[in-house]
Design a protein that fits this description.
2 helices; Ubiquitin-like (UB roll)
């Protein structure tokens, strides 16, 4: 199963787990299964239309899904998925 790296601000929803494994053949399935296992994650990652929020970056093996096929991006069992919230400041 693909491994998903959880950023520190969201770890309270995963019982402080930094890495979780979730079944799914696409990012959309991974996000659905993540939310089923860890309720509340989807609300923080996706907007009301179901799109990944602008300030959330999701990478599959260091490739931003925005430059792949967004939520339709296919994942393999050996892939590592990273959720990276954007950081603002100045």
């Amino acid at each position: 199963m693909p491994q998903v790296r959880i950023p520190t601000p969201l770890r309270k929803l995963t019982g402080d787990q930094e890495v979780v494994t979730v079944e799914g053949a696409t990012i959309a399935e991974i996000l659905t299964n993540l939310d089923a296992t860890f309720p509340g994650l989807n609300d923080r990652l996706c907007d009301e239309q179901g799109n990944v929020r602008r300030f959330v970056n999701i990478f599959v093996n260091d490739e931003d899904i925005r430059f792949l096929e967004e939520k339709a991006t296919v994942v393999q069992d050996t892939d590592e998925i990273s959720i990276v919230p954007a950081i603002a400041g100045g």
